[in-house]
Design a protein that fits this description.
Mean pLDDT: 91
Strand content: 5-15%
Largest sheet: 5 strands, mixed
Radius of gyration: 19 Å
Number of helices: 6
Bound molecules: zinc ion
Low-confidence stretches: none
Strand order of the largest sheet: 2-1-3-4-5
Shape: globular
Distance between the termini: 83 Å
Length: 196
C-alpha cells in the first residue's frame, strides 16, 4: 500500500515537473511538443489550400500550454482568398475570428496561434486586437511579414498587447509548401504563354 502511494506520488510529481517544464519552455519562447503538433496540423491545412489552388497557408488557434484548456482546438482555417474573393480570408484571420465566436469572447489571452507563414499587417493587427497570448509561426514572409521581416508590430511597446512570438517552427516544410506552389504557378503560366 505504502509502495503504491509513493509510486502514485512519484508519477504526480513527474507529471507536475513535466507541466512545469512545458510552461517554462512556453514562457521562454520555445515551442512545446503541443506547438509542434499544432504546427503540423496547420501544415496539413495549408496543403488543403494548395489542393484548391490557394496560396498554401494554414492556421490553428488552441488553448496555450499551462492553461486549463491546454491543447483544445478552438478554430482552424486555411487561406481561401481566391475562392471567397475576400481579402480578409487569410488563414490566421479566419481562425482567430472563428475562435472568438467559439469562445463567445473576443479576448484570446489564453490562446496560442500556430500559422505556417509570418502574419501580415492585417493579421498582426487582429492578433493585437484579440490579445492572442502566443504566436507560433513557420516561415518568414520577406514581402509582407509584420512580425519581424518588414515590421515588428507584435513587439511594439507603444501598443497595448505584446504576445510571445516563436518564429521558425517547422520552417522547412512551411516554406517548401509555398515555394513549390509558386514554382508550379510559374510553370503553368509559362505553359499558357507558350501555347498562346
Ligand atoms: Zn494576413
Amino acid at each position: 500500500m505504502k509502495h503504491r502511494i509513493s509510486a502514485g506520488l512519484h508519477w504526480l510529481l513527474l507529471a507536475r515537473r513535466g507541466r512545469a517544464a512545458r510552461c517554462a519552455r512556453a514562457a521562454a519562447g520555445q515551442p512545446t511538443d503541443l506547438d509542434d503538433r499544432m504546427m503540423n496540423r496547420a501544415i496539413a491545412l495549408a496543403e488543403q489550400a494548395a489542393a484548391r489552388g490557394e496560396v498554401p497557408i494554414g492556421a490553428v488557434v488552441y488553448g496555450s500550454p499551462g492553461t486549463a484548456d491546454e491543447g483544445r482546438i478552438y478554430a482552424e482555417a486555411f487561406n481561401r482568398r481566391e475562392e471567397l474573393r475576400d481579402p480578409s480570408q487569410h488563414a490566421e484571420f479566419t481562425a482567430i475570428v472563428g475562435a472568438a465566436r467559439q469562445l463567445g469572447d473576443w479576448r484570446l489571452n489564453h490562446c496560442s496561434l500556430a500559422v505556417t507563414l509570418e502574419p501580415c499587417p492585417m493579421c498582426a493587427g487582429l492578433i493585437i486586437n484579440s490579445r492572442v497570448g502566443r504566436v507560433i509561426y513557420g516561415a518568414d514572409d520577406p514581402k509582407a511579414g509584420a512580425v519581424r521581416s518588414l515590421y515588428a508590430l507584435l513587439g511594439d511597446r507603444r501598443l497595448n498587447h505584446r504576445p510571445v512570438v516563436i518564429p521558425h517552427v517547422r520552417e522547412e516544410p512551411c516554406s517548401r509548401l509555398l515555394s513549390s506552389f509558386f514554382a508550379r504557378l510559374r510553370e503553368r503560366r509559362r505553359e499558357r504563354s507558350g501555347n498562346a
